[in-house]
């Protein structure tokens, strides 16, 4: 199989973890006789430094023409002035919009060997297997913004069509899993959430009667997600709530460095794959970043954009085997026992069976 993959290393530890994922993808191509072609482009802070904008036109065009996009991370203290007119995160929001990516899938599946890294009691984590579906292109992040010396506002807005399409993604995913959707909102306060709940109820009743649907307020969901995570299958929510809840959910797995994501649009369109962690500027360039989330994002790329399920599972098994053998980076390992980014990547490659 031939596939053109655009790599957006970005900022901070982004280039380090992206390099690790590309090495794994190249090995998969070798093992399964595929032809993967890679090209790098700028996004985020590095793009601001080189081009004056966080998302150059050349990057957008290359991504639109690719079969899939792999992203490292964006942002850092160099560009963190909240009053700056140009910020790295604008590049991430813009590429999602340009590619029509409206559903962000974030799986959370704690690995038995890494349970000690989680602050949650191990008996609560056994058997946890959740996918959070976060709406990506609407809500308060994209609404009209105003600011004066005396006040500021951010408009949260959702259309029926925006809610319908992410709901359908969540219900389809649940139908192929354990058949349960939990829709998270703040319908006791917000009109956008009341619309969200109405649309979710209608889509579930009319189009997916075989899938169980429950509603949960976001504040209570934040509690239940840690107190009884085994009860959840697919969780679907709006942009900001999803952003917050998935960082919380990372504590179930023990580290942000273990959680991948896939940003998807209409079927057949380009998908974007990235770890959910940030650019971690405090450890950038030290060679100690955890590459597993980005490698697992590459597995999601193979599954969702290229239809290569066997190859995706091979990567996931290899990462699982590395974790089982305590191939931990600093975010997971006891002091003095941590592997470098390169060593962790090699641990995955060796378990894939890559010839030396």
What this model shows, in words?
Pathway: Amino-acid biosynthesis; L-leucine biosynthesis; L-leucine from 3-methyl-2-oxobutanoate: step 3/4. Belongs to the isocitrate and isopropylmalate dehydrogenases family. LeuB type 1 subfamily. Its EC number is 1.1.1.85. This is 3-isopropylmalate dehydrogenase. Substrate binds at residues 96, 106, 134, 219. This protein has two domains: 1-104 and 260-356, Isopropylmalate Dehydrogenase, CATH 3.40.718.10; 119-253, Isopropylmalate Dehydrogenase (3-Layer(aba) Sandwich). The longest helix is centred in the N-terminal third of the chain and has 19 residues, at 14-32. Strand 1 (2-10), helix 1 (14-32) and strand 2 (35-40) form a beta-alpha-beta unit. The two termini are 24 Å apart. Helix 10 packs antiparallel against helix 11 (309-324) and helix 11 (309-324) crosses helix 12 (341-352). It contains twelve helices and twelve strands. The protein has a ten-stranded mixed β-sheet, sandwiched between helices. A two-stranded antiparallel sheet has the order 6-7. It is globular and about 55 Å long. By secondary structure, it is of the alpha/beta class. The protein has helices spanning 14-32, 45-51, 57-65, 88-98, 122-125, 160-175, 191-207, 218-227, 239-253, 292-304, 309-324, 341-352, and strands at residues 2-10, 35-40, 68-73, 103-108, 130-135, 145-147, 152-154, 180-185, 212-217, 234-237, 260-264, 271-275. The mean pLDDT is 94.
């Amino acid at each position: 199989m031939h596939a053109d993959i655009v790599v957006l290393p970005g900022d901070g530890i982004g280039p380090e973890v992206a390099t690790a994922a590309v090495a794994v993808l190249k090995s998969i191509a070798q093992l399964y006789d595929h032809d993967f072609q890679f090209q790098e482009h700028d996004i985020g802070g590095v793009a601001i430094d080189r081009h004056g904008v966080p998302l150059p036109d050349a990057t957008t065009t290359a991504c639109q023409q690719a079969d899939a996009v792999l992203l490292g991370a964006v942002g850092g203290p160099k560009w963190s002035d909240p009053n700056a007119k140009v910020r790295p995160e604008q590049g991430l929001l813009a590429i999602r919009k340009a590619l029509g990516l409206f559903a962000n899938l974030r799986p959370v599946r704690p690995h038995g060997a890494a349970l000690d890294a989680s602050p949650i009691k191990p008996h609560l984590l056994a058997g946890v297997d959740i996918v959070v579906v976060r709406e990506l292109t609407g809500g308060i992040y994209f609404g009209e913004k105003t600011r004066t010396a005396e006040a500021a506002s951010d408009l949260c807005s959702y259309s029926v069509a925006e809610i319908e399409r992410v709901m359908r993604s969540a219900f389809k995913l649940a139908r192929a899993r354990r058949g349960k959707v939990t829709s998270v909102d703040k319908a006791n306060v917000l009109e956008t959430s009341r619309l969200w709940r109405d649309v979710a109820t209608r889509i579930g009743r009319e189009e997916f009667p075989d899938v169980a649907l429950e509603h949960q307020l976001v504040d209570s969901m934040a509690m239940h997600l840690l107190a009884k995570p085994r009860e959840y299958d697919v969780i679907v929510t709006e942009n900001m709530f999803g952003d917050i809840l998935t960082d919380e959910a990372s504590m179930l797995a023990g580290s942000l460095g273990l959680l991948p994501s896939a940003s998807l649009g209409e079927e057949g369109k380009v998908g974007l794959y990235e770890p959910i962690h940030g650019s971690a500027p405090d450890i950038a360039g030290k060679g100690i970043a955890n590459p597993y989330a980005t490698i697992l994002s590459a597995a999601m790329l193979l599954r969702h954009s290229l239809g290569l399920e066997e190859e995706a599972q091979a990567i996931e098994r290899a990462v699982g085997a590395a974790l089982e053998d305590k191939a931990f980076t600093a975010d997971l390992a006891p002091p003095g026992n941590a592997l470098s980014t390169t060593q962790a990547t090699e641990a995955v490659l060796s378990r894939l069976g890559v010839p030396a």
